[in-house]
Amino acid sequence: MSVSFIRRIASPKKVLTTAAVAAATAGMALAAAPAQAAPTSASSAKAIAHKMIPDAAQFNAFSKIVEHESGWNPTATNSSSGAYGLVQALPGSKMASAGSDWKTNPATQIKWGLDYMNSRYGSPVKAWNFWQTNHWY
């Protein structure tokens, strides 16, 4: 039975299920997403940051800022200011200096945010100290 025939008689969900079963039977694997796709879950973004910021105190400070700013959501957008991403860059396009995938890649956003905190405040810990006083950084 051909896939085109199945498409004509079955719903899209059934077609995908049938194709997956046929591929599995033939010894093929269907990938859900490309391996290079950027992770978007909070735990994935946090794990990336932990690898990029090995010092516990600096990571904890960075994490507290990101938790308050975006809840670790790499697509968080502030509706009133337009600030974007994990670190709420304003404008978000500033993060392009860290990579062209700044809109979707948590690692790019973390790199930019870490560079920003280090250059403006000296470290994530110092940025967190400022945030605690001002509720922004």
TrEMBL record:
<protein>
    <recommendedName>
        <fullName>Transglycosylase SLT domain-containing protein</fullName>
    </recommendedName>
</protein>
<keyword id="KW-0732">Signal</keyword>
<dbReference type="InterPro" id="IPR008258">
    <property type="entry name" value="Transglycosylase_SLT_dom_1"/>
</dbReference>
<dbReference type="InterPro" id="IPR023346">
    <property type="entry name" value="Lysozyme-like_dom_sf"/>
</dbReference>
<dbReference type="Pfam" id="PF01464">
    <property type="entry name" value="SLT"/>
</dbReference>
<feature type="signal peptide">
    <location>
        <begin position="1"/>
        <end position="37"/>
    </location>
</feature>
<feature type="domain" description="Transglycosylase SLT">
    <location>
        <begin position="61"/>
        <end position="125"/>
    </location>
</feature>
